[in-house]
């Protein structure tokens, strides 16, 4: 298993070709998944919760270039799908998504936070984008409980919305 480290102000970790392929699979899978979920033309929204349990810092070096990591791949894929689906529906379309990005190293989540703050998704940070610093194995039980009691519904979803996600156990 590859080991990557991110620290603000230091060189980016080099992404393996297998991870580039994984990011393409994620994009294609989400596009296909959404096409299947929203087949009904009258449907105006779709709610999702996406958890990246080993999110890393959100940016890599690859063959002399910089590439987004899985958190930004996920964010951009959902935004592009929403734009595509919105364009072909007379009443419009929204993908109401909670993103939960988890990594056990504070340097990684600090780096990811800085990446998102510098991105087109800054307005979603701490609203529908939540970043936890803790081992994924410790987060799983909380994610299950949050799903059962409805706290994984999107904060933008409407009158029965859940409060923005917060982790009481953040380090």
Attribute tags:
171 residues, alpha/beta, three-stranded parallel beta sheet, two-stranded antiparallel ribbon, 4 helices, 37% helix, globular, disordered C terminus
List the helices and strands and how they pair.
Elements: H1 17-37, E1 45-52, E2 59-62, E3 65-68, H2 70-87, E4 94-103, H3 106-117, E5 129-133, H4 136-148
Parallel strand pairs: 1-4, 4-5
Antiparallel strand pairs: 2-3
Helix pairs in contact: 1-2
Give a verbal description of the structure.
Helix content is 37%, strand content 18%. The two termini are 25 Å apart. The chain has helices at 17-37, 70-87, 106-117, 136-148, and strands at residues 45-52, 59-62, 65-68, 94-103, 129-133. The strands form two sheets. A three-stranded parallel beta sheet has the order 1-4-5. It has a two-stranded antiparallel sheet with strand order 2-3. It has four helices and five strands; from the N terminus they run H-E-E-E-H-E-H-E-H. Helix 1 runs parallel beside helix 2 (70-87). With 171 residues, the protein is an alpha/beta fold.
What's this, in brief?
This protein is of the alpha/beta class and 171 residues long. It contains four helices and five strands, in the order αβββαβαβα.
Radius of gyration, Cα only, in angstroms? 16 Å
Q: Specify the helix fraction band.
A: 25-40%
Dominant shape: globular
Order of helices and strands: HEEEHEHEH
Number of strands: 5
Mean pLDDT: 86
Question: Percent of residues in beta strands?
Answer: 15-25%
- Which strand order does the major sheet show? 1-4-5
Unreliable stretches, pLDDT < 50, 5 or more residues?
A: 154-171
Structural class: alpha/beta
Distance between the termini: 25 Å
Question: The biggest beta sheet, please?
Answer: 3 strands, parallel
Total DSSP helices? 4
